[in-house]
């Protein structure tokens, strides 16, 4: 049981990292990025390819993954600079599908649908399989804490204020003399870097990447995590991620109560139950469990 | 800033706690076997029958008194046909339920992702995935695969098409780990046999129309098509091929041309369709048992998972060790040619307990394995669809 919980802590940590990355792009800067699984995949594949083909160390591989994700984030932000709302959502969703299709079809580079196996893990060589889970869980959550602190500072800094201003009204921000495009690209790149970091950590934890692992379902889970936790805040992103992983995993343990049903019915019920819980959570707390509190102008506050 | 936990949240957490710890305190007398099959996602059409056969074998053995004096408990998880979900489900099976074996992984990506967890934790993995790369993983003997690899399948298919007199063979393949290797192996064999492979169009199985892919391959005027897909995409492919007026031969894997496919299409669209399958041994008593369990013509996967369950239980009985290591050590010796021929674990467990040797022959084939865990051979059947019904053409 302990090993399993540690392993789920790793997955929750990875989801939290992705939610943090998305929070900067969407929660603060207001850009609806539904392509986050694309950056996650880029991060995972970058470090996997470098470590397996060129013998890089995982740390160097993850560093490269972060840099490449950020660079591609810049490009995507530039290309989509004039898109907003639903249009941006569709294009970024398309971006993630393009990444997945490239991974599935460019066999010479990515191994196609067979994927890349035997990716070295950070500490796996010296530890027992059980210990790996604990060490990795600790490692991932240290990274989550570090990223959350860092992004929290960014959010509280003047930079974060500008992003929130852009989210509320781009025109006003640019009239106030802020270079909107530059801020948007910076936010997108930093967010993409965090997503790439999560992808890199995932690749080294599981030891195997394949296109099937990067389906839009992951994007949906992370968006749900962020909305359930509360967009705009770092703690909301983390709480939401833990909640979503607890829900998807916790429902497994309901199966013994339904022993009269066939496994296919239990699987369907489980998916329905997860959906129901999230609908309930969002209809009871539409702004998330721990929403952003905005400081108001003194004249409004009274 | 203080952290406040609302009463409602605390209450919910309190309610959830017994479920989370429940399996942790369960009795330790049973031997647990896990099934990790696709109940949802692309493999959804196959998973339910696969679990059904596993569960039937286990019930049968339990009714006869269990194995090593203990009952067997089946824990079923859904891999959602997704490697990510598969890993999480396998973690639960291994760490929480402490299963001795995981049976029935279907998608190659899921099997490859789950395999390292199994061999690191000394849990036996039985799979029906076909990708050649799987048994070449450094698995130390912890993987057993009942599905023939692509080499074995390609040879039989190319041979069949040549004997039919095909001269120009086109390939339409769903993107999968076998799309390219199957084409390369078959085209080499077809060329050697005097036929011409005219191209391999790879499509994304999730699409809802394949008009452009069909136009592309029909431009080469093939007289035979090898349709390397799965049931959902094959329904669309066959309908559109019929509309496009294609009248040549069509060969497809039997797992794609199943009863559901025949029900979904008008008889004209499937007339003359050939299907191949590494054949379950339909003359064997084990196959008849599976027929009784699934109450239909069983697909190859449910025959294979039936064998997985029997092999795992027999290996437990033979080694006398109730763990993955026990299965690992004995799984190759429960098909001992010198032993008594058996077709189900329940009778085998009794024989082994009395000290005699057994020779298990399964529903999917003889179940003899190479050192890396591949089957050494099996029968292949070729079917033809006539007036909406499938008929056996040859079995060898």
Overview of the molecule:
The complex is a heterodimer of chains A (302) and B (396). By secondary structure, chain A is mainly α. Chain A has a domain at 2-120 and 127-215. Chain A has helices spanning 2-28, 36-54, 58-79, 85-105, 107-110, 129-156, 158-168, 170-175, 180-206, 216-229, 234-250, 263-284, 298-301. In chain A, helix 3 (58-79) runs antiparallel to helix 9. In chain B, helix 2 (47-63) packs parallel to helix 14 (345-353) and helix 12 (300-319) packs across helix 13 (324-330). Chain B is elongated. Chain B has two domains: 27-148 and 284-360, Rossmann fold; 150-279 and 379-395, Rossmann fold. Helix content of chain B is 42%, strand content 20%. In chain B, strand 6, helix 6 (179-192) and strand 7 form a beta-alpha-beta unit. Classes of the chains: A mainly alpha (302), B alpha/beta (396). At the A-B interface, helix 1, helix 4 and helix 12 of A face helix 1, helix 2, strand 2, helix 3 and helix 4 of B.
């Amino acid at each position: 049981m302990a090993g399993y919980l540690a392993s789920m802590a790793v997955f929750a940590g990875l989801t939290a990292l992705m939610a943090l990355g998305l929070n900067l792009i969407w929660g603060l800067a207001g850009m609806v990025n539904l392509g986050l699984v694309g950056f996650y995949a880029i991060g995972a594949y970058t470090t996997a390819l470098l470590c397996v083909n060129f013998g890089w160390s995982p740390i160097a591989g993850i560093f490269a993954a972060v840099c490449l994700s950020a660079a591609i984030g810049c490009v995507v932000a530039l290309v989509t600079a004039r898109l907003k709302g639903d249009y941006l959502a569709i294009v970024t969703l398309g971006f993630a599908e393009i990444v997945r299709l490239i991974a599935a079809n460019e066999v010479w580079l990515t191994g196609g649908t067979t994927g890349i196996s035997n990716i070295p893990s950070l500490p796996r060589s010296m530890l027992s399989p059980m210990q790996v889970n604990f060490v990795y869980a600790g490692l991932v959550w240290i990274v989550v804490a570090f990223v959350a602190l860092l992004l929290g500072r960014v959010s509280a800094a003047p930079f974060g204020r500008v992003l929130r201003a852009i989210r509320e009204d781009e025109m006003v921000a640019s009239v106030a003399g802020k270079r909107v495009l530059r801020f948007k690209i910076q936010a997108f790149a930093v967010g993409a870097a965090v997503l790439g970091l999560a992808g890199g950590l995932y690749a080294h934890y599981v030891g195997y990447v394949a296109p099937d692992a990067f389906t839009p379902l992951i994007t949906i889970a992370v968006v749900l995590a962020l909305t359930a936790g509360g967009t705009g805040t770092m703690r909301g992103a983390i709480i939401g991620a833990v909640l979503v992983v607890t829900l998807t995993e916790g429902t497994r343990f309901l199966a013994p109560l339904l022993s009269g049903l066939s496994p296919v019915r239990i699987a369907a019920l489980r998916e329905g139950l997860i959906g129901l819980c999230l609908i309930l959570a969002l209809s009871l707390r539409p702004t998330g469990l721990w929403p952003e509190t905005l400081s108001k102008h003194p004249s409004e506050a009274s | 800033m203080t952290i406040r936990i609302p009463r409602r949240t605390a209450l919910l957490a309190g309610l959830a706690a017994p479920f989370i710890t429940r399996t942790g305190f369960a009795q330790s007398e049973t031997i647990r076997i896990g099934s990790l099959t696709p109940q949802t996602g692309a493999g959804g059409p196959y998973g339910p029958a696969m679990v059904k056969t596993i569960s039937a074998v286990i019930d049968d053995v339990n009714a006869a008194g269990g194995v090593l004096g203990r009952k067997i408990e089946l824990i079923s998880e859904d891999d959602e046909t997704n490697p990510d979900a598969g890993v999480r489900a396998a973690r639960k099976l291994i760490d929480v339920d402490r299963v001795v074996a995981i049976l029935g992984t279907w998608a190659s990506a899921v099997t490859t992702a789950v395999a390292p967890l199994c061999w690191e934790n000394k849990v036996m993995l039985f799979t029906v995935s076909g990708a050649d790369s799987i048994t070449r993983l450094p698995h130390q003997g912890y993987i057993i695969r009942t599905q023939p690899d692509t080499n074995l399948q390609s040879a039989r298919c190319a041979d069949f098409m040549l004997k039919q007199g095909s001269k120009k063979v086109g390939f339409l393949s769903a993107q999968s780990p076998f799309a390219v290797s199957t084409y390369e192996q078959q085209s080499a064999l077809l060329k050697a046999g005097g036929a011409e492979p005219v191209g391999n169009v790879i499509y994304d199985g999730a699409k809802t129309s394949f008009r452009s892919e069909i136009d592309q391959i029909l431009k080469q005027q093939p007289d035979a098509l090898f349709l390397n897909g799965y049931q959902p995409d094959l329904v669309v492919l066959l309908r559109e091929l019929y509309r496009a007026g294609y009248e040549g031969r069509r060969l497809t894997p039997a797992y794609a041309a199943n009863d559901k496919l025949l029900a979904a299409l008008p008889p004209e669209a499937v007339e003359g369709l050939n299907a191949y399958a590494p054949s379950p041994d339909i003359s064997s008593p084990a196959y008849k048992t599976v027929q009784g369990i699934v109450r239909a013509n069983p697909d190859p996967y449910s025959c294979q998972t039936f064998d997985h369950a029997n092999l795992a239980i027999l290996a437990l009985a033979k080694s006398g060790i109730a763990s993955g290591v026990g299965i690992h050590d004995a799984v190759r010796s429960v098909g001992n040619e010198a032993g008594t021929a058996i077709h189900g674990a329940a009778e085998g467990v009794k024989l082994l307990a009395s000290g005699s040797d057994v020779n298990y022959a399964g529903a999917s084939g003889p179940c003899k394995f190479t050192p890396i865990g591949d089957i050494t051979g099996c029968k292949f059947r070729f079917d033809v669809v006539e007036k909406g019904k499938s008929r056996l053409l040859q079995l060898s």
